[in-house]
Design brief:
The chain is α+β, with helices and mostly antiparallel strands. It is built from 14 helices and eleven strands. The protein has two domains: 193 residues, no CATH class; 183 residues, no CATH class. Helix content is 57%, strand content 16%.
Length: 417
């Protein structure tokens, strides 16, 4: 055992000296592997960061949450022309489902309306996202209130002129002062501020709820009308904990089909979009992005591997005389083999580490310009980069190392003269 360790140690020593004595060639060989590892790990890190950001943006919603609407969040076999004929989910359907779904923890009606400007005296908050939701939405998304409260179901039903502001909106309008009880203007109406949300920070979909304002869905319905298809109505449902999602969807679907008077042979004129399915869809997309990125980056790494193999063959050719002398003095084939194999692996690993350093440097720089979006280089990706580098070095150096170990000492010395 000690003999093998000594052979490994001496082989490693020879390999390091060979790299030191040929600095320019070593640097050129490193370049190919560095670019390859940089490409692969950059793709993995970028996709991982994007996936984490998207899922983090959805983390406030329970994975069992369902959204009923006339459009699908994912691929569907129903042609577009037919989907365009589907009716919007109505407020009456929302009320019906609220009463008839005993296993639903909360059901909310939501309208998607354009951003607006909100005014308070001489201050104006522009591009404010309007959350036109019924009161139950507070329980579905678990909104965090910093000051005040959310509006009640009674206030929502009677379209009370109240509003809950996001952190940044409140800061812009009141410049850090007290917001509760103040009246702001929106849709040409005076609305009383009854709550301010906690600061959440930005995410991949925008600025979270910091630049949003929530108000009664019935108040917004009075502004846009009850049959405005441009508001894309949704019914958001959160089942009770432990409920079987498939059974719940089947019950929900049947109740809505019955309400709409659909016959057995008719297709559903609505979609039940499950947030769980949406996250699976995201996983599929990011998986495909990873796969394509790895294929493209693999070509760069392949070029780097060929570069190392080429340099190792040149190294064997240059040191033929030295190999012959070493073998004539008793060096075993495995000593010569390990010597060149270590040289190739060390070369590849150093190139990989430089590539990882460049990815880390790029992640730091990018994160400075993307606000709260963080470009993350995970320990797992660092391990992958190092492991792939070592494997590339091993594969690239194995054939030159074997050819060097099999040289006849006499012929090697004669050839090197």
């Amino acid at each position: 055992m000690l003999i093998y360790l000594r052979v490994l140690k001496e082989s490693l020593y020879f390999a390091i000296n060979a790299l030191k004595n040929n600095k320019l060639r070593t640097m050129l060989s490193l370049l190919g592997v560095t670019i390859g590892i940089f490409s692969i790990i950059a793709v993995l890190a970028a996709v991982d960061s994007l996936e984490k950001e998207i899922k983090g943006s959805l983390s406030s919603l329970d994975q069992s949450t369902m959204i009923v609407a006339r459009y699908s969040f994912g691929p569907t076999e129903i042609p577009q022309w037919k989907r365009e004929q589907f009716p919007d989910v109505s407020y009456e359907e929302y009320e019906f489902l609220s009463r008839s779904l005993p296993e639903a923890e909360a059901v909310s009606y939501v309208l998607n309306v354009p951003s607006e400007s909100i005014k308070y005296n001489d201050n104006t908050a522009t591009n404010v996202g309007i959350g036109a939701v019924s009161a139950e939405y507070y329980d579905i998304e678990a909104l965090q209130i910093a000051k005040g409260r959310f509006y009640t179901e009674a206030e929502d039903v009677r379209a009370a002129p109240v509003i809950v502001l996001g952190h940044d909106v409140a800061t812009t309008l009141f410049e850090g002062g007290e917001a509760l009880g103040k009246e702001v203007r929106l849709y040409g109406r005076k609305l009383t501020v009854i709550g301010v949300l906690e600061k959440m920070g930005s995410n991949v979909f925008g600025n979270s709820h910091d630049t949003n304002a929530f108000l009664s869905v019935n108040l917004v319905r009075r502004v846009y009308g009850s049959n405005n298809r441009g508001t894309f109505p949704q019914i958001v449902i959160k089942p009770e904990s432990g409920v079987d999602s498939d059974e719940f969807v089947a019950m929900l679907t049947q109740k809505l089909r019955t309400l709409r008077g659909l016959r057995t042979e008719d297709v559903n004129t609505f979609f039940v979009n499950q947030l769980k399915g949406f996250t699976q869809f995201i996983d599929n997309i990011t998986g495909q992005m990873n796969f394509l990125g790895l294929i493209i980056s693999g070509f760069s790494l392949l070029v780097g591997g060929f570069g190392i193999a080429n340099i190792m063959f040149v190294s064997v050719k240059e040191r033929t005389n030295l190999i012959g002398i070493q073998k004539s003095l008793g060096a075993k084939n495995r000593f010569i083999l390990f010597q060149f194999l270590f040289e190739a692996v060390i070369l590849a690993v150093i190139g990989g580490l430089i590539g990882l350093f460049l990815v880390w440097l790029a992640s730091v720089i990018i994160s400075q310009f993307t606000g709260d979006f963080q470009f993350i280089l995970s320990p797992w990706n660092m391990f992958i980069g190092t492991a792939v580098s070592a494997v590339i070095g091993l594969i690239s150096g194995i054939i030159p190392a074997i050819s060097a170990s099999r040289l006849d000492p006499v012929e090697a010395i004669r050839t090197g003269m």
